[in-house]
Write a structure and sequence with these properties.
The structure holds 3 protein chains of 3 kinds.
Chain A: H1 9-48, H2 52-55, H3 70-76, H4 85-90, H5 102-133, H6 139-148, H7 154-167, H8 174-197, H9 202-210, H10 215-226, H11 228-244, H12 247-252, H13 261-270, H14 276-311
Helix pairs in contact in A: 1-14, 5-8, 5-11, 5-13, 8-11, 8-14, 9-10, 11-14, 13-14
Chain B: H1 2-23, E1 38-44, H2 48-62, E2 65-71, H3 73-86, E3 92-96, H4 100-105, E4 109-110, H5 118-124, H6 127-133, E5 134-135, E6 138-139, E7 142-154, H7 155-160, H8 170-182, E8 190-191, H9 199-209, H10 231-245, H11 258-266, E9 272-276, H12 279-283, E10 295-298, E11 310-320, H13 321-325, H14 327-341, H15 350-359, H16 372-381, H17 384-392, E12 394-395, H18 405-421, H19 426-444
Parallel strand pairs in B: 1-2, 1-3, 8-9, 11-12
Antiparallel strand pairs in B: 3-11, 4-11, 5-6, 7-9, 7-10, 7-11
Helix pairs in contact in B: 9-10, 10-18, 18-19
Chain C: H1 17-25, H2 29-59, H3 77-84, H4 86-119, H5 122-137, H6 140-151, H7 157-164, H8 181-206, H9 210-218, H10 223-234, H11 236-251, H12 255-260, H13 272-282, H14 286-311
Helix pairs in contact in C: 2-14, 3-14, 4-8, 4-11, 5-8, 6-8, 8-11, 11-14, 13-14
Classes of the chains: A mainly alpha, B alpha/beta, C mainly alpha.
């Protein structure tokens, strides 16, 4: 609007004002964003560090009036404060939270998620290379089939999966869960990796091929080292998806040998009203590892996802 | 230790006697029980500390390892369905009478009539128990506990409001509540819980029975349930009025579950509540209740000059069909059912008795009414006489043994919620429920 | 593309047996591709095909566990039955509302957040991005727990906060209020899904070459024109991803309903996945449960195709 030649003082002032207001608006949005993302999480943490009587106070305590780490002690020492019948009576029959199960089930979640991550990243890298770099008939449609294979809702796949896992003799084993989880996150891993591999310049690969590398060697020596962000991103995606899985393990696990933390958490949530503080502590146990992973590796995500979000 | 050794010897002798009796009709069933190394037991989570104690005792006595699992009551049905469908190992389980028909038809349970002592136990069942645990002439378990919905009140609130006696009719409940409310003692004197879970049926049936209503007869024909002024319509209308017109019920009652209601009541919220009878014990427990000693039970208020009937239920220990496939496993499973739901060597229903004296859970065995320990415990937090008379007036849910009952119950919950929320016409809702019942009856009949 | 073919073929095709098969395979690019794509593909097929076929088989039979010995083939009767059922129609309507509101909220909030982050200095952004990613890492079960506790009608912090801010004067019910319940679910869903959308859109924003903007500035294009002509077109693919991904996830939403509302109050939050669950595990009607899933799957597929058709025109951009 303004002619660029003569910068009018008013014009500049107005511009500065607008810039200033824009800045304020920006910081307000960012503040809201942070509040929105973090406050629910904070609230769980806050509640988990309170005594049961403080948790149910009105108005709520914004910080713990007395810091109580008892709920975490129960989890870490793997025993509830009191397992006597007398205490149980005093809790209306609901004293026995599965606090002892929290750590073992976190371990189960970890082992299974790690197993799926290793398998899916390896399979994903191989497949992604094939899709990104090699020509074969029906490639496009196969790619879509892989991506779309998981749109049947889990609810109706549970029973056949159960039968299948049982048929393989893998019921209540880590392997059984791993087998069930693989197809859930493999498409996602492939998608992220394909998009990234396609951005690796063809010339680098051609050079390697001229030097006598076969396809596997090219993938291993040239593509993979250049693709760390995508591999990390895919790995974290797979890990989180597997850790977060709920309906499948609810059905596929029988005992504490394999029961993951999400299912153990359900026991706390179902007896919701008995101890809000304990429930929140178990909630923290359920999210701590995925959140830590996301925080640790997030710096790779932007680069790892760029290819998928920009090029496709 | 000495005691234990003795009891084990006795038990072994009993088992041997049992074997002898059994050996005639069912050859070589029991001797192989010793071959069973482990048994799978599954329950919902209530009084787990005590359950584990009993399991440990049984493990020592029977020399068997119990793989014990449990899940919260609200998830129990669905979890078991999944486990049974997938063929997960289950031998002895807790059962809800309302799901008995469904589970038997699905082929998951095994009747226990063939075992010795069952007839003896059956003779001593209290009123509704035998019927609740029988499906098509066969008995599917021994009672874990028998309960019913009970009318509880906070004596202190009533005194403060100058009310001499607890209400005898539903109209009086409203009057007294308004009186308590107007004096500022409680904002919402009638504590109601009506979350759409398995307690909802028990609660609505109680409200209906106490107004003289019925749902279906023995042949599953609907009995005026959907009439303009039926007891069911009155009951639901009363709930709506309590919430909207009189404002004596707290606003969040549709999301409140049974445990939360107990917790609220024990913390002094509410002057009246309908809760499972065993909650009288918990509400008067000084360690967990702020109002211990002040909570009393009264016969359920009525309307239409009806008798104070309440809805009752029976929970039991059942044996699964898969356990019964293997004779050894079957024998061991029965041993466990007997251990938990039957008499010990001294002739007392030890587990059932302990459930009552420790937790207030009612029993399904008539002789226990005469047990001095029971009477003493009952008088401790209530009145033994009242306990017995309300129990005698409890009836199971009409139609709960129809194989489609649970399906109808599931259909009912959201619809009654909608009627209460004013999103649906009340009588229209009852008509819909009746229609669905008849449709299901035709489909399964 | 196909000219790479000639680079392979180091071995002669004369050998027989396994080795010969291997040699012949590795001669064509398509053959080699099978070694790369094969394992993943095989696993996907093996692990998906049986469950999918099995549930399809179940869906065309009466499969009522309460009558285990009567499982006649009924063709598409299950499908017709539930399509006519008012419970399904209600669940379907709820799902549409849930999906539409959720997806729009995720995309819009994601866009606003990403634009804001993009304006921040790199130093600040480095601290903010990880923090806003936290909800994304929270499992849905824990997510349900967190919000159930926040919404609690007696002790919830939402009530506490609103009262202390003077917005409301008395604690309210959230989850048992039929007008709000579905949106409480939407909120829990959006809270978890927005971070990923934000990061996806942010990556696309950062990939826009700076000189495009400089050029536009020289052309004296206003901020809004720059936004609509440069920024938005560059975000198309990121949006497509966000839309497809959050639609698929939201259509299948189950954990949240299971933990937070169980479909209530009334049937206000009964989504199709919940309806399927009830039909399957509460009513033991495995046949009709499976048939519903098929319809959901097909609907999801059509939706995904629709998005791609609308947003992904190869000529543009």
């Amino acid at each position: 609007m303004a002619a660029p030649s003569v910068p009018d003082i008013k014009e500049i002032q107005r511009y500065r004002q607008a810039a200033f207001l824009g800045r304020i608006a920006l910081y307000l949005i960012v503040a809201f964003m942070l509040f929105y993302a973090i406050s629910p999480f904070y609230w769980m943490l806050n509640s988990s560090l309170q005594l049961e009587k403080d948790v149910v106070s009105v108005p709520p305590n914004w910080v713990p009036p007395t810091l109580n780490i008892g709920n975490y002690e129960e989890i870490i020492l793997r025993k509830p404060a009191d397992t006597s019948v007398a205490f149980d009576k005093s809790m209306a029959g609901y004293s026995t939270f599965p606090t002892a199960d929290v750590l073992p089930s976190m371990w189960n979640s970890f082992v299974v998620a790690l197993g799926v991550t290793i398998i899916n990243v390896i399979l994903g890298c191989l497949a992604a290379y094939g899709f990104a770099r090699l020509y074969f008939k029906g490639k496009q449609s196969l790619f879509y089939v892989v991506l779309a294979s998981r749109i049947v809702p889990e609810v109706s796949l549970i029973v056949p999966f159960y039968l299948m896992i049982r048929g393989l003799g893998l019921l209540d084993t880590y392997m059984g869960l791993i087998v069930a989880y693989i197809p859930i996150s493999l498409p996602l891993a492939i998608f992220v990796l394909v998009a990234y591999f396609e951005t690796v310049p063809q010339e680098i690969e051609s050079a390697a091929r001229v030097d006598g590398c076969n396809r596997f060697q090219t993938l291993w020596r040239v593509i993979l080292p250049l693709s760390t962000p995508a591999i990390v991103t895919a790995a974290v995606f797979v890990f989180l998806t597997s850790w977060n899985e709920f309906l499948f393990p609810l059905v596929l696990t029988q005992t504490m040998n394999t029961r993951p933390i999400t299912v153990t958490l359900l026991d706390f949530v179902s007896e919701f009203s008995v101890s809000y503080a304990r429930m929140n502590a178990a909630g923290v146990a359920c999210v701590i590892i995925p959140v830590a992973l996301a925080l640790m590796f997030q710096r790779y995500f932007v680069r790892g996802l760029t290819a998928g979000a920009v090029k496709g | 230790m000495k005691e234990l050794g003795l009891s084990r010897r006795k038990l072994l002798r009993n088992a041997a006697l049992g074997t002898a009796a059994l050996a005639l009709p069912v050859s070589r069933a029991t001797p192989s029980a010793a071959m069973v190394k482990s048994l799978n037991f599954y329950s919902w989570t209530y009084g787990i500390s005590f359950v584990k104690q009993r399991i440990a005792e049984f493990e020592k006595l029977a020399k068997v390892k119990i793989n014990y699992g449990n899940t919260p009551g609200s998830k129990y049905h669905d979890t078991l369905v999944v486990k049974f469908t997938g063929g997960a190992p289950l031998d002895v389980i807790y059962m809800i009478d309302g799901h008995l028909a469904e589970f038997v038809e699905a082929g998951w349970l095994y009747p226990i009539d063939e075992f010795p002592r069952v007839d003896e136990y059956r003779k001593e069942f209290i009123g509704p128990t035998a019927d609740a645990l029988t499906y098509e002439g066969k008995l599917y378990g021994l009672p874990y506990y028998v309960g019913h919905m009970a009318f509880l009140y906070n004596e202190e609130h009533l005194e403060k409001a100058g009310i001499g006696a607890p209400p005898k009719t539903w109209d009086e409940v409203v009057q007294q509540s308004l009186q308590i409310k107007s004096k500022g003692i409680q904002e919402y004197p009638f504590l109601q819980f009506l979350k759409a879970d398995f307690w909802m049926g028990e609660l609505l049936f109680t409200m209906m029975y106490s107004r003289g209503g019925r749902f279906v007869d023995e042949k599953y024909n609907v009995m005026g349930y959907d009439k303009e002024n039926s007891a069911a319509a009155q009951a639901i209308q009363w709930i709506i009025d309590a919430a909207k017109k009189h404002k004596i019920t707290q606003p969040g009652f549709l999301e409140l579950n049974e445990v939360a209601a107990l917790k609220a009541f024990s913390s002094g919220t509410g002057s009246f509540a309908i809760l499972p009878n065993y909650r009288l014990r918990a509400a008067n427990e000084p360690k967990s209740s702020k109002v211990a000693g002040k909570i009393k039970m009264a016969l359920i208020p009525t309307a239409n000059n009806a008798k104070p009937h309440v809805c009752g239920w029976t929970r039991c220990y059942s044996m699964t069909a898969q356990a019964a496939k293997d004779p050894a496993r079957k024998a061991m499973s029965w041993k466990m059912v007997d251990f938990l739901g039957g008499k010990d060597k001294s002739g007392t229903y030890r587990t059932a008795k302990k459930w009552f004296t420790e937790f207030g859970l009612g029993f399904g065995h008539a002789p226990l009414f005469k047990d001095p320990d029971i009477i003493k415990a009952a008088n401790n937090w209530g009145e033994a006489k009242l306990f017995e008379s309300q129990m005698a007036l409890s009836k199971p849910k009409d139609g709960q043994k129809a194989v489609w009952y649970a399906e109808w119950d599931q259909f009912m919950r959201p619809r009654v919620h909608k009627a209460i929320l004013g999103q649906a016409d009340l009588v229209g809702t009852l008509k819909t429920l009746t229609k669905q019942w008849n449709r299901l009856k035709r489909r399964y009949g | 593309m196909a000219n790479i073919l000639s680079v392979e073929g180091a071995e002669p095709a004369a050998a027989t047996g396994v080795k010969g098969w291997f040699a012949r395979r590795t001669q064509t690019e398509g053959g080699i591709a099978m070694f790369f794509v094969g394992p993943a593909l095989l696993l996907m097929v093996l692990l998906n095909i049986y469950p999918i076929l099995h549930s399809f088989y179940v869906s065309v039979h009466v499969y009522n566990l309460k009558r285990p010995h009567k499982n006649p083939y009924v063709g598409f009767e299950n499908y017709i039955m539930f399509l006519e059922s008012e419970d399904f129609i209600n669940a379907f309507t709820n799902t549409i509302v849930f999906v539409v509101v959720s997806v729009i909220a995720v995309a819009l909030l994601g866009l606003i957040f990403a634009l804001a982050l993009n304006e921040l200095g790199a130093g600040v952004r480095r601290w903010v991005v990880p923090l806003i990613l936290v909800p994304w890492a929270v499992p849905y079960v824990a997510n349900g727990l967190i919000w159930e506790w926040i919404y609690h009608s007696d002790y919830g912090v939402l009530n506490g906060l609103l009262v202390s801010l003077g917005v409301i004067d008395k604690y309210q019910t959230w989850l048992s209020n039929p007008d709000r319940a579905l949106y409480t679910l939407v909120n829990a869903f959006v809270w978890k899904e927005v971070p990923l959308a934000t990061v996806l859109i942010l990556t696309a924003l950062q990939a826009i070459p700076e000189d495009l903007y400089s050029a536009a500035k020289i052309d004296q294009a206003g901020a809004s024109r720059r936004f609509f002509h440069i920024t938005l077109p560059a975000l198309k693919l990121a949006f497509l991803l966000v839309l497809v991904y959050s639609s698929i996830i939201s259509i299948k939403t189950f954990d949240l309903v299971y933990i937070l509302t169980e479909g209530g109050p009334g049937d206000a939050t009964a989504l199709v996945s919940w309806y399927t669950y009830v039909e399957t595990f509460r009513n033991l009607q495995f046949g009709s449960g499976a048939s519903i899933s098929y319809v959901i799957a097909i609907a999801t597929f059509i939706l995904a195709i629709g998005y791609i058709k609308i947003l992904y025109r190869p000529q543009e951009g």
